[in-house]
Amino acid sequence: MTSLRSLLESVREGDGGWVLDQAEGWTQGRTLFGGLTAALSAHVASLSCEALPPLRSVQVAFVGPAAAPVRVEARELRRGRSSTIVSVDGFAETGLAARALLTYGAPRPSQVSHDSTVAPTAPAPEACEAFMPPREGPQGFFQKFDIRQAGTSRPMSGGPPEYLAWVRLKEREGVDPTVALLAMADSLPPAAMAVFSAPAPISTMTWAIDIAHPVDPTGWSLLSSVSEQSANGYSLQSMSMWDEAGRRLAVARQVVAIFT
To answer: Could you tell me the sign of the dihedral formed by the alpha carbons of 100, 106, 177, 181, in that order?
Structure first.
């Protein structure tokens, strides 16, 4: 099973950018898992641009299928005294597959410090059952994560369109904390699937994630995902992530296309 670390270490320079030749086990249908696409964008940005400050925000548009091999190009758009903006494009055989805009910002002294959010109450990860029941056949990128159900809903459960789950990478050693966060933050299925009566295709169109703190790749993170509204074949989804101490790590939004 290819770990996230070994997959990113296999990225090679070539064809005017950086190339990922294979992504065994990291797919979702016919494309790369969206969290991996974002993580790959951040990784290539770090390879292409020198001395980047901490990553603060990522906006990704999933333009088309991103089946490996994938060629990724990063371009530094602007570098200021504390912030840097980098654009990253990913190309598959069919053309442009993803376009990402990454915003980096160096820490600076500030008198303003507050956090108005409170982590949801959840049982300990060890007390929670697996989020995805065991099944036969290929499981795609889900097999790369240890996901424990901390809420009441899961896909096709008939519960409210929201999930609460503990998440961590199964193979965690040597993974960059920010790259790990991007992969883990998109590890749950779309929350609207909780109300599905049968399996049906879905596709994430856009994903925007703002990062407050890097994740500890060796520990658990609590991930909340809520479909706030669904109509006309699209779901508007919000997501938040906390560490085991209750510190919020990131917030995110997605637009998800639903084909049922």
So the answer is: negative
Tokens describing residue 196: 């599905």
Q: Write down the pLDDT at residue 172.
A: 84
**Domain regions of the chain by residue span:** 4-106+124-258
Length of the chain measured in residues: 260
Contact 30, 65 (CB under 8 A): yes
Are 46 and 8 in contact, with CB atoms under 8 Å apart?
no
Give the phi and the psi of residue 157 in degrees, each rounded to 5: -90, -15
Rounded to 5 degrees, what are φ and ψ at 81? -65, -35
pLDDT (0 to 100) of residue 139: 63
The 10 Å CB-count burial string (b at 16+, else e) for 104-141 is bbeeeeeeeeeeeeebeebeebeebeebbeeeeeeeeb
Give the chain's radius of gyration (CA, Å). Answer: 18
* Nearest Cα to Cα of residue 39 among 258, 241, 186, 230: 186
- What dihedral angle (degrees, nearest 10) is formed by the CA atoms of 124, 126, 129, 135? 140
What is the topology classification, in CATH, of domain 4-106+124-258? Porin (2.40.160)
Whole-number pLDDT of residue 18: 97
Q: Which helix (H) or strand (E) holds 107?
A: none
pLDDT in tens, 45-101: 999 999 999 999 999 999 998 888 999 999 999 999 999 999 999 999 989 999 999
Indicate the DSSP class of residue 67.
P
92: β partners: 95
Residue 106's DSSP bridge partners are none
Note whether 137 and 160 are within 8 A (CB). Answer: no
Calpha distance 176→214 (Å, rounded) = 9
Q: What are phi and psi of 182, to 5 degrees?
A: -65, -40
